[in-house]
Amino acid sequence: MANGSAGNGYAVHAEPKPAPLDASKVTVTLAETLKEVPPPEDLVFGKHMSDHMMVSTYHPVTGWSDPEIKPYGPFMLDPVSSCFQYSTNLFEGMKAYIGVDGKPRLFRPELNMKRMERSLGRVALPSFDTNELLKLIQKLVHVESRWIPNLNGYSLYVRPTLIGTRASLGVAASDHALLYVVCSPTGPYFRTSRMLSLMAVSEHVRSWPGGTGGYKLSGNYAPTFMPQKEAAKKGYDQVLWLIGETITEAGAMNFFVVLQREDGDLDVYTPPTDGTILPGVTRDTVIALMKAHGSKTNLPEIPSTQKIHIYEESITVSQVAQWASEGRLLEAFTVGTAVVVASVGRIGVEGKEDIQLPQHESSMGPVALSLFEKITSIQEGREQYEDWSLVC
Fold this sequence. Notes:
Layout: E1 27-28, E2 52-59, E3 63-64, E4 68-71, H1 82-85, E5 89-91, E6 94-98, E7 104-107, H2 109-122, H3 130-143, E8 155-164, E9 177-186, E10 195-201, H4 225-233, E11 238-243, E12 246-250, E13 254-260, E14 266-270, H5 281-292, E15 308-312, H6 317-325, E16 329-336, E17 340-348, E18 355-356, H7 366-379, E19 389-391
Parallel strand pairs: 1-4, 10-11, 10-17, 14-15
Antiparallel strand pairs: 2-3, 2-4, 2-9, 5-8, 6-7, 6-8, 7-19, 8-9, 11-12, 13-14, 13-16, 16-17, 17-18
Helix pairs in contact: 2-3
């Protein structure tokens, strides 16, 4: 039987497959009037948006539309779109920097793309080749390079977002989607101090075993706002999220503690990626750098002969209190894309005295400070390490 023919003599026409996301088909429409780039002192996280955005839509029959880079602006969506009714939304957080060579670059973007694949699978949104998305992000960052502040500690925050746009109240996965990327110039996340106070909270949990805490979904964030407001009323900067007594995250950041060993080395503990915490890109980065200390690289504030032993294990707030009382707790710190690294000064536990962390001249402990200096040096192109920088 010939290809394209059925046994009865009639030709069979295969249905066209939905088109994949294809970065080579991108069209670029530049804004006629460009915005004025705000001065550095006004670059609060997420306040200003750049001139352009990248957009592509998915239809279950035709597939992904040809991507567009076009002037930043609002979308028109149906009121019953899945994104509004059932929170079928996810995003990534990335940063672009100007290197010493004057070229814009992204920091370990392949990890963001892998995490985005996992997240869209968890909420059953239409998939795409994230390598193509990364090409589009590179193109957008190149177009918006004038928005990247050429200052230490400043960057262009890049947010790829995928939302379900199926226009129905039916409780089902969205087979329509909108993929877009926006950019926002930003300075230091915490303006006044890199020493945080945390309030331990177990009444309200951010995530739970078998839940979605290990995915970067928009729906994970809204339930954290009320406990965060309560923590602020009590004089704390962020919430330390607990499941029972077990620590998961701090705010929207990963959490680490540093202990002194009898042999002079350091033990560093952080909660494992067991599904209750987000596998952060910065988390992966600090673990890799600490493991490489004294061999492949050196952390600037730590002697090269002092070994750092990393443990991805569950830790409880009672353990942290005990380590502090024994004088073994040297420092605690949080990490994330927006903040990079921030030290913890105290932890509040309901009905008990605050756990006090050792104070340091620089306001950051030596491990936290070393990691902050090392990571920002790599991000800003002042130092090369592995293949962590992708030039746009």
